[in-house]
Amino acid sequence: MAPLNVLMVGTGEYTTGFVGGGMSGSDKKVGVVGLTLFDLRRRGKVGKLSMVGTSGQKYPAIREHLQKNIAAVYNNLDVSFDSFPSDTTARDTDSYKTAIDALSPGDAITIFTPDTTHYPIALYAIERGIHVLITKPAVKLLSEHQQLLREARKHNVFVFVEHHKRFDPAYADARARAKTLGNFNYFYSYMSQPKFQLETFKAWAGKESDISYYLNSHHVDICESMVPDYKPVKVTASGSKGTAENLGCVPGTEDTISLLVEWVKRDEPGRRATGVYTASWTAPQKAGVHSNQYFHYLASNGEIRVDQAKRGYDVADDSQGQLVWYNPFYMKYAPDEEGNFNGQTGYGYISFEKFVDAVTAFKEGRVTLDELDRRGLPTLKNTIATTAILEAGRRSLDEGRGVVILVGEDGVWDLR
Fold first, then answer.
1. Partner residues linked to 152 by β-bridges
2. Strand 254-265 versus strand 230-241 pairing type
3. What are the C-alpha distances in Å from 319 to residues 13, 154, 182, 194, 324?
4. Least packed by Cβ within 10 Å: which of 122, 167, 174, 379?
5. Which residues, 6+ apart, have CB-to-CB distance to 64 below 8 Å?
6. How does DSSP assign 19-55, residue by residue?
7. Is 311 helix (H, G, I), strand (E, B) or coil?
8. What is the DSSP-derived secondary structure letter of residue 17?
């Protein structure tokens, strides 16, 4: 079977490393999506690549950026791709439709665009028999999540939510060990990014989405995957404000959001647990690490603590004016001794390879959609509680009350 053709939807930092006319200043200076797919194409797992954004006039600068920072750095990495819309088009918000229509059933797309656009783009692709990888959060609304799940089954396509923390080696090991420690009791997590990142996010921060959707989605998903025999039943959220607004974000933009979630064991309602998930994008400008991240899991027979901020690797760099902690376990950008890309073991890379391998196996008839769900991959079915919690948290903030999560006998989820 021919390798998988992939359309990259979105041209920003995570896809290309290109932001606001130049290279990103974050830990994704050459992106993740494009670099990974270029290497998967070199390895024969991916075929034709294309990219779509809303402005074609960015492409000459993006191609120059990719040539300089990827093709000229690593051996044998072809950074070419077909682009939509044309380089002369200033703006076309429906260009994703043209790009998807150029694919064939059984091809795939990756979606790395603002949260509010995930649903219409994914639905358009699913209805045309295209397999889909969506960045987290999959969608903002529980109703949209369930609709995508129904349509994916109807059209027999695989939809994967890019929760790459599931493939972080420490988190993956912790998830496995948690299942040996008895009943879930308590989970606390924290994740933050420095304030300068709001310069990248200012176009949508507080308007189209919030810090909980952006960062809490990681640890809520990890917790959901650790305790599949529990379900969330109530969410109460609180948020702090002021700093993001002072940095130019729209009024009302929360700096930090905490979600207090009540969990209950599905077959033993008397057993209850508590989850607290906190996220902020107003950490100090020079925090030493781009993403501070840790969690504490407590069960009836033990506990787990994971701190992923420092990784035991720090660099003193005069150009940074500070001590910096790097995370090569996420994306390893340093080439090997022969100049080849050497980042295949990074969990950011692994997430995409898992998707490509799953789609290929499905197309070849070696696996079913139900079997992919049972593998514990971050599929739509396996991430529904995360979407329910995130939307319930947003509603709790907006309405000033706790929001109840219900799961009917028919398996349909609802918020009250």
1. none
2. antiparallel
3. 22, 53, 48, 17, 11
4. 174
5. none
6. ETTEE-SSS-TT-SHHHHHHHHHHTTSEEEEEEE-S-
7. coil
8. S
β-pairing, 82-84 vs 46-52, is parallel
Q: What is the pLDDT of residue 409?
A: 87
Residue 157: CA atoms inside 13 Å, Cβ hemisphere, count? 26
Q: Which residues contact 28 (CB under 8 A, 6 or more apart)?
A: 13, 14, 17, 331
Residue tagged 């603590």 (tokens):
305
* CA neighbor of 185 nearest in space, from 217, 226, 236: 226
For 89-139, what is each residue's pLDDT tens digit?
Answer: 999 999 999 999 999 999 999 999 999 999 999 999 999 999 999 999 999
Identity at 198, one-letter amino acid code:
L
Helix (H) or strand (E) holding 372: helix 369-374
Q: Which residue has the tokens 């925090």?
A: 287
Q: Structure tokens of 258? A: 């905490």
Q: How far from each other are the two terminal CA atoms of the chain, in whole angstroms?
A: 47
Cα distance between residue 141 and residue 168, in whole Å: 27
Q: Which two tokens stand for residue 283?
A: 């950490």
C-alpha pair distances (Å), 347 with each of 14, 32, 167, 350: 14, 11, 5, 5
Burial class of residue 358 in the structure, from the number of CB atoms within 10 Å of its CB (0-12 exposed, 13-18 middle, 19+ buried): buried
Please check whether residue 164 is in contact with residue 189, taking contact to mean a CB–CB distance below 8 angstroms. Answer: no
Q: Which two tokens stand for residue 346?
A: 């990074």
Q: Could you tell me what percent of the chain has a pLDDT over 90?
A: 84
- Gap between the Cα atoms of 9 and 213, Å rounded: 20
